[in-house]
Amino acid sequence: IDYANGRIVRVDVYNIAKLVEGNSNIFNSNVRGFLGANSVNKGILETLINEDSIKRFAYLNNGITILCDDYKIKPGGEVVEIKNPSIINGCQTASTILEAYKLQKINPNMGIVLVRIIQSTDSSLKEAIIKASNTQSVVKSRDLISEDNIQKQLEKQFSGMGYMYQRKRGC
């Protein structure tokens, strides 16, 4: 692809807090703003303020997508500079990281978040990326329990009796 360049990097949550704190326009291209203390954001905050769970944050969170005009990487893979960054997916994550930082619960080297950096100056491509990055099939509460051990045991027991127990939609 000659019209876009990208990288997936690990970023210290402290650096995300500083990026958001220092850039009032960081969410201008996001499809929505920060939704405040809803149940998902409360869960993110709980993960961030717990010294044990923040270490696993990159595995417990979907990450952040940043569109930019340009970025530079220094040897070793660390992002040095992002020109005109815009968080187009991960506003809830980034805003909650900033909240935890303001509560003085985040310091350097406590946890990381995965960040997808996409560089392009093509406005139609940027628009398509914003739409695609924020579109998914609705995940229902039933879907979230489909991998629980109880559901797996029920499936096995019903199968043993000659019945089918569908624990996942679409399967």
Give a quick set of tags describing it:
37% helix; globular; 7 helices; two-stranded antiparallel ribbon; four-stranded mixed sheet; alpha+beta; 6 strands
What is the molecular shape? globular
Strand share of the residues?
15-25%
Uncertain ranges: none
Helix content: 25-40%
Overall pLDDT level:
90
Give the radius of gyration.
19 Å
Give the termini separation: 35 Å
How would you spell out the order of helices and strands? Answer: EHHHEEEEHEHHH
Q: In terms of quaternary structure, what is this?
A: single chain
The neighbouring-strand order within the major sheet is 1-6-2-5
Largest sheet: 4 strands, mixed
The count of DSSP E runs of length 2 or more, i.e. the number of strands, is: 6
Number of helices: 7
Structure description:
It contains 7 helices and 6 strands; from the N terminus they run βαααββββαβααα. The chain is of the alpha+beta class and 171 residues long. The protein has a 4-stranded mixed beta sheet. A hairpin with a 3-residue loop joins β3 (70-74) and β4 (78-83). The radius of gyration is 19 Å and the shape is globular.
Please render the helix and strand layout as text.
Elements (H helix, E strand, L loop, with lengths): L4 E8 H9 L17 H11 L7 H4 L3 E5 L1 E5 L3 E6 L2 E4 L1 H12 L9 E8 L3 H11 L7 H4 L4 H12 L11
Parallel strand pairs: 2-6
Antiparallel strand pairs: 1-6, 2-5, 3-4
Short description:
The protein is of the alpha+beta class and 171 residues long.
